[in-house]
Structures are given as C-alpha cells and as structure tokens.
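STRUCTURE:
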C-alpha cells in the first residue's frame, strides 16, 4: 500500500526535471490528483485493517504443575499485617519478577521476622499461580535417619521432579556417578516461575558441595529461572557469593513497632504509649509479638503499654536500651526478659506453673513435642512449691499458648496426635535462664527420667502409641549426649525398645537413627566387642535389611558374627543368631549357596543343642526352607515349611504371627510347585487372620494380600489379581512411602499382571518407574534392581515376565 502511494506521489512531485509537464500547469487538475491520492489512501487503510485484524489479547497461560507435596508446602501465614517491611517486600518482588541470575538472602538475628517475611513472599507468589516450595534446612540432620545433606538433596530432587524433571534422569545420573546437584539446578535454570524458600540456613555446612556456599557448586546457586530465597542469621556477603541480594532485617522503628503492638492490643494505650514500649523492646518483632499478646489478655495484670514498660524493671534497662539489638546474645536476653513478664502475669492469674513448664520444654530437642509427654513428671520437685497435677499442667500449657510462647500446630501437620513447638529463640533464651537461675543437672535428670518412663509406657501399649512414640524419638536422641551415666543401661534398653516398636510401625528410617546413636555411644563407652555393642550392631543391621540396604546389613552382620564367634564360640545362641541373620541377608542378595550353607550349619547346631520345637530351631528351619525354595529345590522346601507349620500350630496356635509366617511361606512354595488351589486356600486364610488381628494396612497383611494376588495371577484370574495388587500398592505408598522395598515389589507385581492383561503401556510405565527408583535407592547391581531390569527387558521382547517378587517374611531373631 505504501509503495503505491509513494509511486503516485513521485509522479506528482517529480518536477525537478529539465521542463515542467504540461498537465502540471493546470492547477485544477493538480488538486484533483491530490484529492484522489488522499481518498485512495483512506480506503486502502480501511481495507488493509479488515484484512489483518489485530488479535485480541490472550490471557497469560501458565504451565500446569502437580500439587506441591505436603512436606514442601510453606507454613501457614499469620493473619496479622507484616509491619515495617513494605520496602523490603518491594525489593524481593523485583527479584521475583526478574531473577536475572540473582537470589535473595533474608538475614538477621533470631526473632527479627525472617521466616514471617518469607512466608508472606511465598503466599503472594502462590496467589499469582506460581509453584512454591519450602525447605527447612536442618544442618544437623533429621529424626528420619538422614543427615541434613541427604535430606536437603532428597527435597531438592523432589522439587525438580514436581516441576517436571523425569525421575529416570535422576536414576541415570546416580547410576553413572554424575552430579545430582548439577542435574537439579540445570533443570531449574530451564524452568521458570517457581519459588523456592530454604528457611533457617544458619549453619551453612552442607549447603555447598566440596567447598564454601559462595562458590555456588552446591545447593545454593544464582542463575535459576525462578526465585531462590534463603533465610539465615549469617549476614556476611562473602558467605553467599555473587548474585546474592542481601536483605538485612533491622529492628522496627518505634512507629512501626507501635503499629505491631496496636494490631495485637488495640486497647493497650495510645500510639505514643505503644511507641515508647516498642523503643524499650528494641523493635525486635518477636519481643513485640510476645508483649502485644500479653497486654491483650483480658485477665492480664498489665493491660496497658505503659504499665508493661514500667514492669520491665531497672535491672533490664541496660540490655533493653542497647542499640546493638542485632547481636544474638542481646536478642536472646531481650526477648527472655520480655516474656518473663508474660510468665509473671500468668503467675498472678493463678498459673505459676507456666514458668517451670516453659523451662522444661526448652530443654527438650528442637522438634515437635508430643502433647501426651507434657505431664507433671516433666517438672522437677524443686521447681515448684506445690504438688503438680494434670489440671495444672493443662492450664499452664494453655497459658503459654495464649501468650504466644508456644505454638500448637494442627495434629495433621506433624502427626496423628497433638504436639507443641517452641520458637528457636524462645528455646535458646529459656535454656540460658535455666542455666543462670538453677542447677541444670536436676532439670536434666528429671527430664531424662520422664522421657524414659514415657517411652517404656508407650512401647508397652504397642500400636495405640506408635504416633506418639515416633515424635518421642528425637528427644530420646538428645539424651545420648546429655544423659546421666548411671542410667545409661536403662536408656539404651529404652531406645532399643522404641526402635523395635518403630520398626513394627513401619518407621524404619527413624529406627535406624535411634539404633545408630546407641551403637555409637556403646562403641565409645564399652568397646566394639562388648556384648551390648554387638547386640546393637546386630539390631541396626536388621533394620537396614528391612529397608533393602543389604550391603550395609551384610557388613554389620558379618562383623558381629566374627566378633561373637571369637569371644563366645560357634555354638553360643548369640553367635547362631548372627549366623542366621547373615544368611538371611545373603539370601536376599541372591547368594543362595552361601546362604544355604550358613542356614544349614545354624539348623544343625540348634537341632543338636535345643529341642526340635524350640522357637530358634523352627526359625532356622523356616529360613533354610526359604533359601531352598529360591534354589528351585521346591520339594525339600515344602517338607521343611510343612514341618515348621505343624510344630508352630501345635505349640503356638493357628493365629500366632510365627504360625501365619510359616503358612504364608508354605503357600508360596506350593504356588511354585503349580499347586495353585492349595496355595490360594492357605494365602486366603492367612490374609483373613492378619486383617482381623493386625489390621488392613499392616505390612504383614499387605504381604499376604500381595501373595494371594500372585496365586490368582498364576491361576489366570487377572482381574481379581489386579484389584488386590492395586489395593496393596495404594496401601504401601500411603503407609510406607513410594521408595520402600515392599512398595516397589508391589508395583513390580502390578505391572506383571497388567502385562498379562495385555495393557503393555501401563506395565512398561510401572516397570520403568520401579527400575528408576531401585537404581536411585539400591544401586545398579542390587538383586532387586537387576530383577526390574530383567522384567523391563522381557516386556520389550514380548516374553512372559519372570521372577515376580513376593514377600517371604522370614523371621529374623533379635537379641534384647
């Protein structure tokens, strides 16, 4: 269009020639040409605008991400306003909108509101449709049996997988020995929109890989396509390196602090009164929060800001007026004195027990405290002048929560039971005041005794107390470092029993942590060859075996066997126990000939020294039959399993767990012999009894359901088998987790029956997922990994899948 107009204009205006065109001398004709050009231009513009309409603005479509796993979701934000941080929030928002190779470090001392600020950023990002992930860094490790580095790596991998990183790539990198951190960050650099908060990164050891954090070879890196936000007490830019946008939180101004107080206690006085109190409290958000909640209480003695300020007392004025409130020790002292007033108010209200209760809670581990642990036995007799009752404890705990000194998360946020949490600064300052004001030894002796008595009571209750027992674990671990030497034996036995109950409940990783701590303590105190140390080594190996960590279990069991053979002799019951357990591990490693030799030696020794119906003899006979079945010697295996079943039925009864174990194992051999109807009958009977006595989600119940499905598959009743396998897999994922060996066996078996139903795509997906997880968790040479590789390969070739995994449940003896 514009070319046409230019040509026409060129015709009209091309008068720089030797002579003027004749037609140009007629002015009327010239103006008509110009008019024609204008009209033509307008018409052309209309036509072209119709030919190419401007598309309407489309709404921004964000990529779809799966729901964030519960363990990675940010904490619930406070309903109160975030005062005095508007400019800080704007700075963070600018990085959120355009990271440009930057990440944010929100830094400052404890109680300055770092986590609250990060929660607000996470909340705003989620409202804008961004996937938000929250990791609480625990440099010292976790109660789940993993170091802080392992836990962080697992969570970072889960973040990337949730954003779409194929799990197969994770397994491939682990198999090849590549860098997991490079894989995760490489994916985060290609994926936009995410927000990741690493909270509480005060101890930076472990955040870097083979070097300081600031070298950015570890989990803290600039350059991601989303926002990485770290909260830490470490304010040094050198720690975090290039690309770190340092957001240093300072105390709130008197005006800002006053607004915090007025938000919490509207009737506490004028804005000027609130400013004076905020100044006295140094503008520390946590101290302001505690003071505001205290003044707001209807029954409070100090219901005015001025009265609260005056009550702080001259003895604390030097600390409270200190300008360097960013010093950690000053901050601890400041808030410590601040909530001492809240404790004074509770005492005036008739709740004097609040102070010693807070002291006791502060001496426990930095972990959720089960509500059922908070009883009168937690308070030393010297800490109060009156007899402490349950009602007084309940009242004190309610008062502490009312004044903001403790938090009580919803039961489903931590466990199936109620729990109590302390802010880290509250814990630190309370501990400091206990040390200053009283004999710390008396407090710790009382708490140790109460923890041990509670653990002994809960382990005796069994299943009903499993959730509380799990929350108790990190507090018991604290005792291994601070316990009274005279009570070490009792403490060790208690932790051993707690670990056993957690194994029964399926909390194997927590049990590993407990057993490892006990083993370390005994090795140091008693020596590596002491009978107690060897018992602990045996029990740690047993729980490692339960998680499929066979190589570690073999090493520990072999060490234990060698030590016991040397110190106790080859026929001692403990030596035979170790020989039995080592053989069981070798059987799971596929080293059947070695396993048979050890199991046969063990059985011969038991037969020679014990009664044929002795539990140890029958256990050994059961385990030898299991390895014979794996060697394909089914007739021998059937004979031994049937003898064991008959003896156990006669001596223990038909519903005893050991009897059901033998019935399960006999049915498994009958299935291998092709006697499917007999096998189905025995498996169905075992399943019915276990559902009735153990419940539908117990691991032994799921084992029976899995094995019954296997027989139905062998009978060609694929639809029934699929239904049972699906139910088993769902229960395993819910109760054991997606990476547990039993979960993976169930997933493998479901894939097998789907293959038999002709649903090859579904089968391949499950086989591949199982293989990827086994490579990641067990390694490429583990027997279960090789089994998965075999099944996937046979599916690709169109053959029948072999070696479907069943759960045998040989009983492994323990020394108590």
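SEQUENCE:
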């Amino acid at each position: 269009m514009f070319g046409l107009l230019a040509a026409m204009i060129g015709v009209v205006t091309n008068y720089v020639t030797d002579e003027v065109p004749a037609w140009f001398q007629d002015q009327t004709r010239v103006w008509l040409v110009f008019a024609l050009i204008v009209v033509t231009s307008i018409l052309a513009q209309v036509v072209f605008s119709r030919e190419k309409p401007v598309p309407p603005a489309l709404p921004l479509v964000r990529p779809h991400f799966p729901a964030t796993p519960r363990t990675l979701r940010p904490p619930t934000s406070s309903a109160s306003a975030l005062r005095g941080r508007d400019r800080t929030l704007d700075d963070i928002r600018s990085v959120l909108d355009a990271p440009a190779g930057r990440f944010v470090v929100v830094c400052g001392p404890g109680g300055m509101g770092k986590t609250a600020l990060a929660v607000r950023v996470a909340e705003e990002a989620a409202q804008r449709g961004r996937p938000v992930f929250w990791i609480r860094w625990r440099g010292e490790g976790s109660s789940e049996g993993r170091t802080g580095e392992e836990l962080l790596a697992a969570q970072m991998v889960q973040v990337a997988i949730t954003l779409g990183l194929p799990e197969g790539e994770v397994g491939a990198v682990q198999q090849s020995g590549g860098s997991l951190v490079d894989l995760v960050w490489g994916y985060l650099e290609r994926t936009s929109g995410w927000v990741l908060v690493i909270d509480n990164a005060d101890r930076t050891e472990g955040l870097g890989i083979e070097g300081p954090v600031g070298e950015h070879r570890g989990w803290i890196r600039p350059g991601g396509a989303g926002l990485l936000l770290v909260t830490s007490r470490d304010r040094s830019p050198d720690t975090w390196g290039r690309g770190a946008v340092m957001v240093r939180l300072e105390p709130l101004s008197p005006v800002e602090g006053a607004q915090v107080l007025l938000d919490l206690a509207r009737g506490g006085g004028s804005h000027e009164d609130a400013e004076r109190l905020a100044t006295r409290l140094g503008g520390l958000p946590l101290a302001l929060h505690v003071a505001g909640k205290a003044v707001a209480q209807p029954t409070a003695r100090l219901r005015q800001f001025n009265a609260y300020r005056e009550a702080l007392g001259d003895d604390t004025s030097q600390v409270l007026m200190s300008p360097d409130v960013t010093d950690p020790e000053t901050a601890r002292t400041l808030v410590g004195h601040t909530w001492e007033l809240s404790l004074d108010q509770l005492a005036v209200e008739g709740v004097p027990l609040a102070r010693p209760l807070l002291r006791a809670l502060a001496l426990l581990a930095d972990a959720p405290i089960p509500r059922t642990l908070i009883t009168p036995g937690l308070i030393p007799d010297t800490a109060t002048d009156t007899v402490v009752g349950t009602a007084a404890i309940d009242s004190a705990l309610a008062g502490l929560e009312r004044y903001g000194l403790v938090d009580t998360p919803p039961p489903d946020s931590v466990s199936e039971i109620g729990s109590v949490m302390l802010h880290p600064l509250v814990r630190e300052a309370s501990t400091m005041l206990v040390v200053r004001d009283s004999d710390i030894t008396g407090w710790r002796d009382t708490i140790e005794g109460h923890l041990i008595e509670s653990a002994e009571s809960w382990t005796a209750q069994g299943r009903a107390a499993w959730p509380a027992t799990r929350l108790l674990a990190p507090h018991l671990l604290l005792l291994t470092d601070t316990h009274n030497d005279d009570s070490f034996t009792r403490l060790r036995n208690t932790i051993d029993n707690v670990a056993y109950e957690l194994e029964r409940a399926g909390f194997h990783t927590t049990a590993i942590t407990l057993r490892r701590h006990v083993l370390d303590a005994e090795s140091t105190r008693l020596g590596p060859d002491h009978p107690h140390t060897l018992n602990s080594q045996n029990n740690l190996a047993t729980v490692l075996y339960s998680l499929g960590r066979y190589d570690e279990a073999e090493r520990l069991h072999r060490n234990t066997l060698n030590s016991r053979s040397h110190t106790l002799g080859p026929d001692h019951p403990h030596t035979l126990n170790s020989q039995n357990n080592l053989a069981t591990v070798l059987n799971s490693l596929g080293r059947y000939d070695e396993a048979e030799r050890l199991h046969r030696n063990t059985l011969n020794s038991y037969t020679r020294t014990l009664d044929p119906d002795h539990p140890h003899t029958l256990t050994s006979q059961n385990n030898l039959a299991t390895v014979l079945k794996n060697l394909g010697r089914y007739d021998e295996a059937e004979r031994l399993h049937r003898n064991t079943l008959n003896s156990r039925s006669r001596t223990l009864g038909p519903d005893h767990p050991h009897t059901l174990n033998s019935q399960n194992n006999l049915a498994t051999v009958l299935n291998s012999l092709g006697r499917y109807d007999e096998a189905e009958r025995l498996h169905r009977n075992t399943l019915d009894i276990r559902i009735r006595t153990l419940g539908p989600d117990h691991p032994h119940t799921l084992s029976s359901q899995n094995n019954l499905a296997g027989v139905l598959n062998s009978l060609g009743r694929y639809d029934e088998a699929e239904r049972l396998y699906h139910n088993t897999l769902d229960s395993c994922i819910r109760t054991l987790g997606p990476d547990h060996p039993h979960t993976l066996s169930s997933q493998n078996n479901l894939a097998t029956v789907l293959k038999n139903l002709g649903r090859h795509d579904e089968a391949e997906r499950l086989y591949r997922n199982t293989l990827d997880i086994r490579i990641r968790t067990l390694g490429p040479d583990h027997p279960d990994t090789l089994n998965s590789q075999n099944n996937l390969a046979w599916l690709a070739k169109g053959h029948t899948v072999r070696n479907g995994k069943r759960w045998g449940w040989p009983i492994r003896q323990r020394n108590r």
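REMARK: The mean pLDDT is 81.
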